[in-house]
Write a structure and sequence with these properties.
Blueprint lengths: L1 H7 L7 H11 L12 E6 L5 E2 L6 E6 L2 E6 L4 E7 L1 E6 L2 E8 L4 E7 L5 E7 L1 E2 L7 E5 L2 E5 L5 E7 L1 E2 L7 E5 L2 E5 L5 E7 L1 E6 L2 E6 L2 E5 L5 E7 L10 E5 L2 E5 L5 E7 L1 E2 L6 E6 L2 E6 L4 E7 L1 E2 L7 E5 L2 E5 L5 E7 L1 E2 L7 E5 L2 E7 L23 E2 L3 E5 L3 E7 L8 E6 L2 E8 L5 E6 L7 E7 L8 E9 L2 E9 L3 E9 L2
Parallel strand pairs: 36-45, 37-45
Antiparallel strand pairs: 1-35, 2-3, 3-4, 4-5, 6-7, 7-8, 8-9, 10-11, 11-12, 12-13, 14-15, 15-16, 16-17, 18-19, 19-20, 20-21, 22-23, 23-24, 25-26, 26-27, 27-28, 29-30, 30-31, 31-32, 33-34, 34-35, 38-41, 38-43, 39-40, 39-42, 42-45, 43-44
Length: 484
């Protein structure tokens, strides 16, 4: 389509209405073009020295040695006034000041309004998790609640936050694990110990790493020079200088072939092989072959990659979502990614390409008359009554899916932004047609492909739920038949 317009434009000078009339005559009913800009700047951050990724819809910004918070629009919600500041967790953020004369660091916690909920009287603090946080006073750590009161008095050299009612701690130079009342669940005998993750605790003993079962017994022997916690049922381990993945029984289920490996996230892990990064699934099969200079795990449906010295973002199928043009870039968080392009710093939003249609309703048309795309096999629903109702909504994560939906050639929805709120339509089965159908046409892929829609079908007191999936190459379909 773009080619035809470029070819005609030097020679023809028509009004838009006449041009559209000609195009309707010479082209098929449906034609497409894609937006050229695959991202848009949300806001610039050049006025600050540094910013961080978003968490709980807030990001840190700093200038000189003081910091504050901005929201997802770039508005300052906590002004630049803290010398010590960290991200929000469970509604509280660590904040404090530095006494340069005494070289003392004192921190407390501010609430979402920026006022201290817990005064800055501690030497060091962790983020809150499960209602408690690690707090340091006079070289020792203990645990406090959201009021700043001690749950467990300071007696540890190092601590992890509580996770699943247990916390790894270091005492007398060795690591163990405590219960919420401060008693030891695992005695401090390890060189290092991490909290339980998916029922397994990563521990180090004799210079090697192994795993402890929930009953504290050794589930997987101490034999690895490097290892990670279990994520999505697998843990990365170093075998002979290469990384592979084991299951909770200790069985090597993905061979140790990788120079580096990240934990699994969303069923995919970024791995490095022969100086190039790619992505594998939990079976160890390549989703995207090694081809990137750098890669990070997918976040919000997009993978951050480096190509020819520049950063961009890819989809699960390897297609480029945002072209690699950035000098620096981070993963998407809260629908925003922190980037630098030349001298410009700021946050971008993904701007998924929307396929524009010029569609004339063609009542009683066949599905193939409405789209050039492949049409899936679909499924057939039996109706108990000629009159029926459908309700359409996004049943998964709301990620910006835009759809068009047709019934027997009539477009019920055009470029509709999906949400959790259902849109209802009352329909009539037409016995005269060879086939009655609903066609789902994806207008974009959202942030997490494919484009999905849940459709509730109510007929004759019966309710049925159908999930449709579509992409930019294939539509999904439901066929209807009337019960005899």
């Amino acid at each position: 389509m773009g080619y035809i317009l470029r070819y005609l434009s030097p020679y023809l000078c028509f009004t838009m209405n006449r041009l559209l009339t000609i195009l309707l005559l010479i082209l098929p009913t449906v034609f497409y073009s894609q937006s050229k800009v695959d991202y848009k700047w949300a806001f610039s951050t050049n006025k600050w020295d540094k910013t961080t990724d978003f968490r709980e819809n807030r990001a840190l910004m700093s200038k000189g040695n003081i910091s504050g918070f901005i929201d997802t629009t770039g508005a300052v919600i906590i002004p630049l006034e803290y010398q010590l500041l960290d991200a929000y967790s469970e509604g509280l953020a660590t904040a404090g000041f530095i006494d340069l004369k005494k070289m003392e660091f004192k921190s407390g916690y501010i609430n979402r309004n920026g006022t201290f909920q817990i005064p800055p009287i501690f030497d060091n603090l962790s983020a809150f998790q499960e209602g408690s946080a690690c707090a340091k006073v006079k070289d020792l750590y203990g645990f406090i609640d959201t009021k700043g009161e001690w749950i467990i008095e300071p007696s540890f050299e190092e601590t992890n936050v509580f996770s699943g009612s247990k916390a790894a701690v270091k005492k007398n130079g060795k690591w163990g694990m405590i219960n919420q009342d401060g008693t030891f669940f695992i005695n401090p005998v390890f060189e290092y110990l991490l909290n339980y993750s998916e029922g397994m605790a990563l521990a180090k003993k004799g210079g090697k790493w192994g795993y402890l079962a929930p009953d504290k017994s050794v589930q997987i022997p101490f034999k690895y020079t490097a290892a990670g916690s279990f994520k999505e049922g697998l843990a990365k381990v170093d075998i002979g200088g290469k990384f592979g993945f084991i299951d909770p029984s200790g069985k090597l289920v993905i061979a140790a072939l990788f120079d580096r490996a990240m934990d699994f996230k969303e069923g995919i892990a970024a791995v490095k092989q022969n100086d190039l990064w790619g992505y594998i699934n939990i079976k160890g099969n390549w989703i995207l072959e090694p081809q990137y200079q750098r890669a990070r795990n997918f976040s919000e449906g997009l993978g951050l990659v480096k190509i020819d010295g520049k950063y961009g973002y890819v989809r699960y199928d390897g297609s480029v979502a945002i072209k690699p043009i950035f000098d620096e870039a981070q993963n998407f968080q809260c629908e925003l990614a922190r980037v630098r392009l030349g001298d410009r710093k700021g946050y971008i939003r993904y701007n998924p390409p929307i396929e524009k249609e010029l569609v004339i309703d063609k009542l009683n048309a066949k599905p193939s008359d409405l789209t050039r795309r492949k049409i899936g096999v679909g499924q057939t629903i039996t109706l108990l009554d000629k009159s029926f109702t459908i309700k359409v909504y996004d049943h998964k994560k709301i990620d910006g899916d835009i759809i068009s939906l047709a019934y027997n050639g009539a477009w019920l929805l055009r470029e509709h932004l999906m949400s959790s709120e259902a849109v209802a339509n009352s329909l009539e089965f037409n016995p005269a047609l060879g086939e009655n159908y609903i066609l789902l046409h994806a207008k974009n892929l959202g942030r997490e492909p494919p484009n999905t829609a849940a459709i509730i079908i109510e007929s004759g007191g019966q309710t049925q739920k159908v999930i449709l999936n579509a992409n930019l190459q294939e539509c999904d379909i439901i066929y209807f038949q009337l019960a005899e």
